[in-house]
Amino acid sequence: MKALVPVIALLIGIIIGVFLPIQVTPFYARYIAIVILVAMDTIFGGIRTILESTFDATVFLSGFFVNSLLGVILISIGDRLGVDLYLAAIVAFGVRIFQNLAVIRRYIIRKLSEKSREIKDG
Amino acid sequence: MNSRTIWALSIVCFIIGLLSVTQIKFYEAPKYTLFSMRNEQLIDLVEKLEAQRNDLIQEITTLREQIRQYEESSAREKTVLEGMLKELNRVKLWAGLLPVKGPGVIITLDDSKRKIKVGENPENYIIHDYDLREIVNELWTSGAEAIAINEQRIVVTSEIRCVGTTILVNGVRLSPPYVVKAIGNPDSLMNALNMPGGIISALSYISKEYGIILKVEKSDMLELPPYEGSISLRYTRERE
Predict the structure, then answer these.
(1) pLDDT tens digits along A2-53
(2) Closest-CA residue in chain B for A3?
(3) What is the pTM of this model?
(4) If interface means Cβ-Cβ distance under 8 Å, which residues of chain B face chain A?
């Protein structure tokens, strides 16, 4: 049951976002994109650490905020230098998301195969 | 999973939901859909917009035409109004309701300064209302267009009559000397007045005999006041 709370939080966020009259300018759209990517990376990283039983809320949240800040700084530096540094951030976080997803996938597969072996053994 | 884990995940999930929707809204805003449109769609859009623009141009032309018509009709109304005002002014000028100027004659009449001789009629030593009536009548006859006696303009309802020792014109009592100003052709007015057997010849005879003052002179520029009395009609109505 407890696992549903983050899902509910996601829905609440979506609902508030729908009804909140926020208008994003094209300039800030990329900053929001990187923050979303960081958040997704953090979530998958968090799920992985939960599955590995090494989850630490402080590390989790600080990771999210520090990574977001870093992404934003990268974008603003890139804007000033004329280099699309935010692409680097997107690639880095995208790679991490896939890696985390791969770990989670392997973990689940292992768990499932363990379970089926237990069933077979039992 | 302890509650700290749940809360940490929930916060980040909440942020993901909020920001994702914001971002989606941004990309779905109409002004940015142009970037994601294909050429055919863009051509379609351009054609639609062109059609809209042509409709609007048509509308502008129609509205301009309407404005022009309104302006024209208002201008026509204006000319009609101006014509009416002009006509009204002309009538007022004719009726003596406006101050006027022009060439004409001035007739000055005054009572005699001589002492009345014993046994003589004192009536012969003063100017009478009928003298003025005669003069005014003579002036109208000879083409005067505007007449005033002692700054009282003679209009259609003006009376000239004797009340005691004074003469009443437009209900205003006048006292001698009487200055009759008349606008018209000075020469024809002069000729009419000086006609043998006319009013001036009669008055000059009285002038010689009894000393009343009579002066007739031409003037290049006379200024006459307007009639200032009431012009309301209580009984007269226009016939249908």
Answers:
(1) 778 888 999 999 898 888 877 777 778 888 888 999 999 999 998 889 888 8
(2) B6
(3) 0.45
(4) 1, 3-23, 25-27, 29, 32
pLDDT tens by residue, B129-171: 888 888 888 888 888 899 999 888 888 888 888 877 778 888 7
For residue B70, what are the CA distances in angstroms to B56, B65, B66, B84?
21, 9, 6, 21
Chain B residues in contact with A66 (beta carbon < 8 A): none
pLDDT of residue B41: 75
DSSP characters over chain A: -TTHHHHHHHHHHHHHHHHS-----HHHHHHHHHHHHHHHHHHHHHHHHHHTT---HHHHHHHHHHHHHHHHHHHHHHHHHTS-HHHHHHHHHHHHHHHHHHHHHHHHHHHHHHHHHHHHH-
Comparing CB atoms, the residue among A7, A8, A61 nearest residue B8 is A61
Which residues of A are less than 8 Å from B15 in CB distance? 13, 35, 39, 64
**Cβ separation of B12 and A43 shorter than 8 Å?**
yes
